[in-house]
Write a structure and sequence with these properties.
By secondary structure, the chain is an alpha/beta fold. It has helices at residues 72-86, 99-102, 204-217, 231-242, 260-267, 272-276, 278-286, 292-297, 301-310, 323-346, 355-359, 363-370, 407-414, 463-472, 475-478, 510-519, 538-551; strands at residues 24-27, 30-33, 50-55, 60-65, 117-122, 128-135, 155-159, 181-185, 225-229, 250-253, 381-384, 392-394, 401-403, 497-500, 524-528. It is globular.
């Protein structure tokens, strides 16, 4: 429709349906179909078009066009939902679009439980890891929920993000505790592993070997599922490539391979987050006294400066910085990451973030404002698995097909790319390594991965801030000894893998997941189109729990 149209909106099919079971809108040769309440067809719309009402004062009609923008798939999902919901007869039996299907709730976390065992394992002369076991133990004798052909308790390993985020009891709730033995482990330097915040002997190579040491400590032959989220996907993939016989299946959420371009997207002055929300970036930059001119000359200077502050080498801010100032900077860092994670819920249809968010300097206020824009609706799920030649669109609530496989759906998914490229920074190919031996790192940063409360010591720098900076500014060092993940997928293509990627994820954009899928055709990639980065996003949680149940045949 033309730009002059004043009343364009997504069609609610009920406006034009002459027969409650079928709608055909022929526009320039393109045909739009609605689902039938009879027969076995589960297709709501067979071709992915954006349908709108046109009323220019002279002619009323309908316009169908191919999705072409980044938000097209979201609008397409909405159109499909409206078509399916309005075109199904009341007596239909649980097909896509039926009220009965729409009433099916998304899956939520399993009930909270306490660990039945915890312990530590010393992995070298410096580091001792802390772990917890939840769910079933070898002694409980409960076989009621196990598949008939399985006599062994399946073991699930959860790998947290960060780097440095640590594990929490809620992480065990993504698995059925009556079925799985669930292993949570704090990676080196974070959570309750000791020394907290320690970066000596802290590389991806070390973390990979730690998982094998832990497997032997627990007397396991293999982990049946290795579930990694965000940074945890990097560790999960690297572990599987090094020890493929130790991994029965992989579950990935928010795919990350820790390439320099992925770090630049989040933390460089000309990266994607800085371009999308310049006001938030300016606060992030100003907190460490970096000017626009300096950032222009070295887009990674802000990240490097935060790393210097968190490691005690405050040459940019000044050696006289006190503990309170350091903690304010740490909170600013965490607030920036929080805003980046939530940005998909803040952006309007045109991609802009509300002025109230841009002008706020209080991140608690940002969180409260964001709730007005947040939604538990993750949209339909775009799916591409080993049996598919193209993408299809599914209803997450009942698994029914909303849009059949087609080039147009694939084009729409491709439109979700954020623009991460291998060389998107004009500065040096890689950030200068700041610290290798860790000798200039200061005192212990505390026992919590979260920000300390106001009552806690203001001298504690959160381990996640410290370790994320360490890894992000020393990529050549921390990734040494581990082959490029995308170049060595052939080592693990035999391992069943489901990857869940929010279509609106701003922390780990879909670009990396699509690159992994291109290298790994057998991998099943599921994209809740409106979902973001968090594992607690309702649509992401649903997909994770559905996958963990599916892996053991529930």
């Amino acid at each position: 429709s033309s730009k002059k149209d004043r009343s364009s909106m997504l069609v609610k099919i009920s406006v034009v349906v002459l027969h409650p079971l079928l709608l055909v809108a022929n526009c320039n040769g393109w045909v739009l179909h609605a689902s039938s309440s009879s027969g076995n067809s589960r297709t709501a719309i067979a071709a992915p078009f954006i349908v709108s009402i046109r009323d220019d004062g002279r002619k009323r009609g309908f316009v169908a066009q191919r999705p072409s923008s980044r938000s097209a798939l979201m609008r397409l999902s909405a159109a499909a939902a409206a078509a399916a919901a309005e075109s199904t007869a009341p007596d239909s039996s649980n097909k896509i679009g039926d009220p009965s299907a729409e009433d099916v709730p998304l899956r939520t976390l399993y009930n909270a439980s306490k660990p039945y065992r915890n312990g530590t394992v010393q992995v070298d002369s410096i580091h001792t890891l802390y772990y917890e076991l939840y769910g079933r133990s070898d002694e409980d004798g409960n076989e009621t929920r196990m598949p008939a052909a399985t006599s062994r308790i399946p073991t699930a390993l959860f790998l947290h993000g960060g780097p440095g985020a640590g594990c929490f009891p809620n992480h065990a709730r993504f698995f059925d505790p009556e079925v799985y033995r669930i292993v949570l482990v704090d990676q080196r330097g974070c959570g309750r592993s000791t020394p907290n915040g320690e970066i000596r002997n802290n590389t991806l190579h070390h973390l990979v070997d730690d998982l094998e040491i832990l497997k032997d400590e627990l007397r396991l032959s293999a982990y049946d599922i290795v579930f990694g989220g965000s940074w945890g996907t990097t560790l999960a993939l690297a572990y599987a490539q090094r020890y493929p016989s130790s991994v029965g299946s992989l579950l990935l959420r928010g795919v990350c391979t820790f390439r320099q371009c992925e770090i630049d997207w989040l933390f460089a002055a000309n990266g994607g987050i800085a371009q999308r929300n310049p006001a938030a970036w300016r606060r992030f930059q100003n907190a460490v006294n970096v000017t626009d001119a300096e950032s222009s000359q070295n887009p990674r200077l802000v990240l490097e400066t935060y790393a210097d502050i968190f490691t005690g080498n405050n040459h940019k801010v000044g050696d006289g910085i006190d503990a309170n100032e350091t903690m304010m900077i740490a909170r600013n860092w965490s607030g920036y990451e929080m805003l980046a994670s939530m940005s998909h819920t803040l952006e309007k249809e045109d991609g802009r973030i509300p002025t109230a968010i841009k002008e706020s300097t209080n991140f608690s206020e940002i969180m409260n404002i964001s709730r007005r824009y947040d939604s538990t609706d993750g949209g339909f799920v775009a799916v591409h698995d080993a049996s598919s030649t193209e993408w299809r669109l599914e209803n997450p609530k009942d698994g029914s097909i909303v849009l059949e496989e087609g080039v147009q759906v694939s084009t729409s998914v491709d439109g979700l790319r954020q623009g991460i490229i291998e060389k998107n920074i004009a500065a040096a190919e890689e950030t200068t390594s700041h610290v290798i031996d860790g000798r200039r790192f200061g005192a212990d940063c505390g026992n919590d991965a979260d920000l300390p409360s106001a009552q806690e010591s203001q001298t504690k720098i959160p381990a996640q801030n410290k370790l994320t900076c360490h890894y992000s500014t020393n990529i050549s060092h921390v990734m040494s000894g581990v082959p490029n993940i995308l170049d060595h997928v052939d080592r693990i293509r035999h391992i069943p893998c489901v990857a869940i990627q929010g279509g609106s994820d701003r922390i780990t954009p879909i670009d990396t997941a699509l690159a992994l899928k291109a290298a790994w055709p057998e991998m099943e990639l599921r994209v809740p189109t409106k979902a973001g980065h968090s594992m607690y996003d309702a649509a992401i949680t649903h997909e994770i729990i559905t996958a963990t149940d599916r892996f053991i045949g529930q």
